[in-house]
What we know:
Layout lengths: L3 H17 L6 H24 L3 H19 L2
Helix pairs in contact: 2-3
Amino acid sequence: MTNRPLTSVTAALVLAFALSGCANMTNTQQRALSGGAIGAAGGAAVAAIAGGGLVTGALIGAGGGAAIGALTGK
């Protein structure tokens, strides 16, 4: 017996709560968040290609992306 319906409902609720938290963000906060997400993906991709640690690449990319996103949001 699997709990697929419960897992799906839980995932949908978590996603809904996470996205509703973004509704009251300022432009700078939204850009910092999206910059961090894009930077994390880019950093992980570069690390995978270069043979480095994925987590390290993602953290460095997220930090840089969030900083650049926040600066462009002003």
